[in-house]
């Protein structure tokens, strides 16, 4: 792997920690500051809303300015989120906490483009492995985010979580320095060619392959976020577990999200993307069954570990499959649309998690995921059926287009 990929791994470990940071304390601090319990997960949900709102502007800016300047801007957004969180902790104003979550999402929208930058820095045959390597940076984020989140969670804190948000600001500054020094735009293998025309997005989305790719990432992210967002609240408010227990579960869950990236590229070559996606769906189904069967610490732990593994197989599979469905000069349009759909689904899931948990409880919440798993399975099977039909009609293989 070239240096750019490893720089992106390090930057991902630092910049991505905003997500687990807010997952661990967002709903807890939100419950303390919000006027109604149904609003407790709103700061977490607004992280994803911010991501959705910033995806298209981020890809537009990358198309015009290049990837590196926008990556640096993303870390500045992360630093701003940390500053707003400090202000929210100091003043106790719920709306400022929500704004911190949204601005954090602006920065994460840029971080999610790191995987495409890595894929464009290597030869096509290494694209899936490059994307998986960058996702490995999430292992660092899985440990670092929750650790700094609990810095200011002690019972003697005058301003709860203030020092936690200060820690987030410092970590984002480190990500800025890492990208500024280490990433070199001139080493990107794929450069944007300004070609007029191109297929309408409607035509691109008509491809069963593209729909399967987007569905794997969108449904995978939505189900994962839906269950994960409610987990700290369920563990501490309903099941009586400590914040440290919830932190440990979230940390190990995020490790399970990213650790399979060590072998994801190899798995795609050995068993193929369709089987990899189906394995991800199976892991999700086992997660639902386990989570619905009890509320002990180990029920939460093993359910969230399965949730992380399922997410990795679906997200890496969808990310690796998507470039087969567009041409080089269509990449920013399709990548932007893909991430809007992915994080729009995640935003809906995050924002609804608190209300669904209040209405249906933990067991009811996890069962809501089942119909979406069936939908993704149908998309994968439809893609496979279309692929087999094309190979039958045109011996020699079907093209992604």
From TrEMBL:
InterPro entries: MFS_dom, MFS_trans_sf. The keyword Thylakoid does not apply. Keywords: Membrane, Transmembrane, Transmembrane helix. Signal peptide: none annotated. The chain crosses the membrane at residues 7-28, 40-58, 93-114, 126-145, 165-183, 204-230, 250-271, 278-295, 301-321, 341-360, 366-385. Residues 208-401 form the Major facilitator superfamily (MFS) profile domain. The keyword Nucleotide-binding does not apply. This is MFS transporter.
